[in-house]
Amino acid sequence: MPQHKSIRKLIKVITDQTIVKGQKHNSGFPMRKWKISICGVNAHGEEETLPYVDHVEYILHQTFEPPVRKVNEFPFQLQEQGWGEFDMKIMLHFVDKSVPPFVLDHDLHFQSTHYEVPQTITFKSDLKSSFLKLLNLPPSNASDRESSNDSAGDSMTHKRRRDAGSKEKAKRMRSGHSSDDDSRAGSSAAASGDEWDKVDVHSLAKKFTLLQPEDLVELVQIVKANQTSDMYVKEDGEAGEFHIDLRTLGNDLLSELWRFCERKLEQ
Prior knowledge:
Layout: E1 6-24, E2 30-41, E3 47-48, E4 53-59, E5 68-71, E6 78-82, E7 86-94, E8 102-108, E9 114-124, H1 129-134, E10 156-159, H2 182-185, H3 201-210, H4 213-225, E11 233-236, E12 241-244, H5 251-266
């Protein structure tokens, strides 16, 4: 039987934040409570536990004391409060210590009160049988399932690396939305009602991962051409990143993106 090079498991990083009423930093920005948790996502887009993760480390901005936080229990939730947006690193340490930790960059922002970012962990196929069991993959056909969890989640972060050498991420611009805008903080910044539920955003996010790089560039252009102030669409040109919260796009644009993906994937 031919051996596959890798095994992939999908997880998502879930962030919730809210304004602390009556509290403001010296800068004038409101204080916010925020929490981050991590869970797995199965092939049906449903949340699942992470039995193969031993603990998670959050590496926060240096102004937090201590800046490195270790969380041992699922869903590996970290709660804090502060006034500013920043990028952090999250390290997932696995039960099998011979497997290197998975490190991801997470953008803590205040554009939405709730957002979810999918991430794919890629493992080499030569894993111990005990660890494969924790991945819910029997040794005989573990690599055959590597594509079953390519993507899911209600939001999407797509990174377009301009070169192999990663640049230090520039300070995030808020694209015209002030982080101390109390009127926005009280809402979800998503499309009102159940409008976005008409399109299966889990399946749409999965289709994104199957597109070719040139197709993703075209997809970004479609989003930017139809962008409104109600949508969370954020571009960091210096880091080559483009962030979209699918829940905020509205059914018309989601439908257009669905048709675009269907057309490209049929070619």
